[in-house]
Q: What sequence folds into this?
């Protein structure tokens, strides 16, 4: 599939997945991928995890938009920020502060299920309608909360038919269910539990939120097994003029054995995911350095582009 | 140090032997539930009567713990399953339960209601139905409520508790906590009826508040809100007393806190947040568990939490040496051997990076002796065998 076609399939992509699967990194890589396709991108970080900016080697994200890279802007949009902004926008600025300080805001928010989620998505919708960017990438809340987050609008409409929040919920539902406007990209790891959870989340989202799911991003793939035997290794070392000890040889054997075993277990899970979930997959490589920075983002973006190009033309 | 048949330098055996409550906290995806379950298993094997309270276990782990149904009451796990060889210290037992926020809240309401009728009214209220599942902090509060019940019940020597995977997980440490604060706040008092002091001002403020609520959520909700607060009339004192009791219990030396993390920078950042939060409440961390640590396959001893210094330099040297070998091999088109050398370098780099990632939290806690490492396992932790293996690293 062509990169441009993939990146402009919808105006909003919501990146969702369980905690620890690398959702935030995938969000950044997707943004970078779209920027390479020539699109302007806005990253919206809803959990206040401002460290996303370190992937671009920029200072922490804030409520105000900042430039992260050419063509890529970013901002946070936490539920509390969305609620305050909603009150301010609806002429309640003078008392919104007091509502917060007394804790009454918490009561108001709790009186309507999923209200904060709807306000966050409502703000995303507003950004989308205002054409804030060619593509808006939303780093969704972690874990099972993604389901609550994306089904909040439908749930609220079931409970309440009128009022300003119900109107907001209807707008959000319209956004989520229109594949030309919004898609959800799920992220997982090639491990037993994350695979089980992403399958469950995918079916729940399609059934209950009516969203269109893009390819599943399988993060953290180890390299394919290294084709090397002790005999080949010794021959290679001789050819390169390197002296290797018996210890070195043992270390090399242990290392490629460890990596191959890991990859083999991952491949089992990748096949299992393909069997359980009829969605295309985009594999991203495991990064061995634990501190993620711009170099990692570049490498992940390369892999993302490669993964998209490898997709069948009719996938999206 | 030998405590109750354990022999190790880990702080966890002593913690499990001396505390009645062990709380595991940390961000999502770091293996908190697994750690809690493995600790419970270790404690049971050391002869203690244990219950593990889980929040949202993965399906296969839940099955392993006998939590297939909705069991929010402790269910005993047969000893033959956690002690197949019969080598455990006598007298131990292992039970597990899964927290059900709504049902715990329901029981609490029924227990504190003045009359059965009041209880029924609350359970039927639509706002209550939302609050009991949606209001942030409710799940945490109910975990503590469950803890209170189990602690009072005396059937267990030690309770090992999992916490929800969010930053809010420690909200119950707020005194008074969120739910109590809800009943404590001025709006609530206004709704519960004007005070003698400022009947008029309160009435006016209530009017303004209700207008806002109506504007935001529609008038239909307003009636629910009013009904909700009226339904709770007279119950808030019981709630407050109860939550303060739990808080005192957690702050006492009957409770121990285990911070769980994985050796990745984002997880460690969250761990630092939790560490600060515990410190601010005056609670000591009993142990820091670092899960899924990759093994060092080269002979260079590098203690955890050491980002710089001779050990780290040695590791750096290993990485550089093998990268140089890979390059040399590449030059003579020895792709296989070159890739093998790159893999050695990458794995050493991974270990170096993991150690560097963990350093900030070890420094924050200031107690390297509290660190317990669990290596990444060659299999999924989804049965009691695997839990026993984890437990062997923990204790």
A:
């Amino acid at each position: 599939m062509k990169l441009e076609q993939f990146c402009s399939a919808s105006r909003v992509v919501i990146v969702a997945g369980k905690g620890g699967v690398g959702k935030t990194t995938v969000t950044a890589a997707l943004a970078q991928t779209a920027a390479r396709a020539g699109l302007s991108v806005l990253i919206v970080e809803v959990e206040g995890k401002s460290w996303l900016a370190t992937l671009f080697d920029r200072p922490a994200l804030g409520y105000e938009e900042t430039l992260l890279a050419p063509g890529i802007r970013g901002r946070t949009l936490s539920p509390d920020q969305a609620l305050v902004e909603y009150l301010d926008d609806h002429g309640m600025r003078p008392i919104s502060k007091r509502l917060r300080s007394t804790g009454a805001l918490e009561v108001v928010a709790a009186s309507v299920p999923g209200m904060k989620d709807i306000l966050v998505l409502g703000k995303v919708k507003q950004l989308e309608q205002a054409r804030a960017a060619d593509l808006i990438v939303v780093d969704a809340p972690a874990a099972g909360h993604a389901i609550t987050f994306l089904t909040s609008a439908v749930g609220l409409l079931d409970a309440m038919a009128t009022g300003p929040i119900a109107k907001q919920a209807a707008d959000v539902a319209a956004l989520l269910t229109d594949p030309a406007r919004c898609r959800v990209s799920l992220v997982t790891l090639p491990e037993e539990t994350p695979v089980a959870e992403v399958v469950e989340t995918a079916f729940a989202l399609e059934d209950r939120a009516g969203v269109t799911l893009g390819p599943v991003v399988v993060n953290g793939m180890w390299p394919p097994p290294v084709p090397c035997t002790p005999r080949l290794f010794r021959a290679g070392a001789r050819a390169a003029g390197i002296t290797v000890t018996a210890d070195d040889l043992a270390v090399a054997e242990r290392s490629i054995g460890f990596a191959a075993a890991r990859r083999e277990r991952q491949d089992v899970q990748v096949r299992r995911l393909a069997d359980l979930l009829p969605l295309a997959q985009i594999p991203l490589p495991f990064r061995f350095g634990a501190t993620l920075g711009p170099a990692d983002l570049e490498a992940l973006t390369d892999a993302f582009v490669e993964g998209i190009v490898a997709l069948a033309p009719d996938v999206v | 140090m030998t405590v109750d048949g354990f022999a190790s330098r880990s702080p966890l055996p002593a913690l499990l032997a001396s505390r009645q409550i062990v709380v595991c906290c940390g961000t999502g995806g770091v293996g908190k539930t697994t750690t809690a379950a493995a600790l419970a298993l270790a404690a049971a094997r050391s002869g203690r009567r244990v219950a593990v309270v889980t929040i949202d276990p993965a399906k296969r782990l839940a099955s392993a713990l006998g939590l297939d149904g909705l069991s929010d009451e402790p269910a005993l796990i047969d000893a033959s399953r956690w002690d197949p060889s019969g080598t455990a210290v006598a007298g131990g037992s292992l039970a597990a339960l899964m927290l059900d926020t709504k049902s715990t809240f329901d029981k609490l309401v029924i227990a504190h209601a003045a009359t059965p009728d009041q209880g029924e009214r609350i359970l039927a209220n639509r706002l209550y139905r939302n609050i009991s599942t949606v209001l942030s902090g409710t799940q945490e509060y109910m975990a503590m409520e469950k803890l209170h019940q189990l602690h009072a019940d005396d059937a267990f020597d030690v309770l090992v508790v999992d916490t929800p995977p969010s930053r809010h997980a420690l909200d119950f440490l707020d005194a008074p906590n969120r739910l109590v604060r809800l009943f404590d706040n001025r709006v609530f008092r206004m709704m519960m009826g004007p005070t003698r002091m400022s009947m008029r001002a309160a009435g006016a403020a209530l009017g303004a508040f209700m207008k806002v609520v109506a504007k935001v959520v529609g008038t239909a909700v307003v009636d629910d809100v009013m009904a909700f607060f009226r339904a709770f009339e007279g119950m808030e004192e019981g709630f407050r007393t109860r939550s303060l009791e739990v808080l005192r219990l957690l702050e006492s030396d009957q409770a121990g806190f285990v911070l769980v993390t994985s050796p990745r920078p984002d997880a460690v950042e969250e761990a630092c947040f939790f560490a600060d939060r515990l410190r601010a409440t005056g609670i000591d961390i009993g142990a820091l568990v670092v899960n899924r640590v990759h093994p060092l396959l080269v002979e260079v001893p590098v203690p955890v939490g050491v980002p710089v210094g001779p050990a780290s330099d040695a590791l750096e040297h290993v990485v550089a040496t093998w990268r140089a070998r890979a390059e040399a091999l590449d030059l003579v088109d020895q792709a296989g051997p070159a890739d093998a050398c790159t893999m050695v370098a990458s794995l050493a780099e991974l270990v170096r990076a993991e150690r560097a990632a963990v350093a900030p939290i070890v420094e924050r806690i200031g107690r390297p002796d509290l660190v317990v490492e669990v290596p990444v396992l060659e299999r999924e932790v989804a049965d009691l065998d695997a839990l026993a293996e984890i437990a062997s690293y923990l204790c």
About this structure: The two ends of chain A are 9 Å apart (CA to CA).
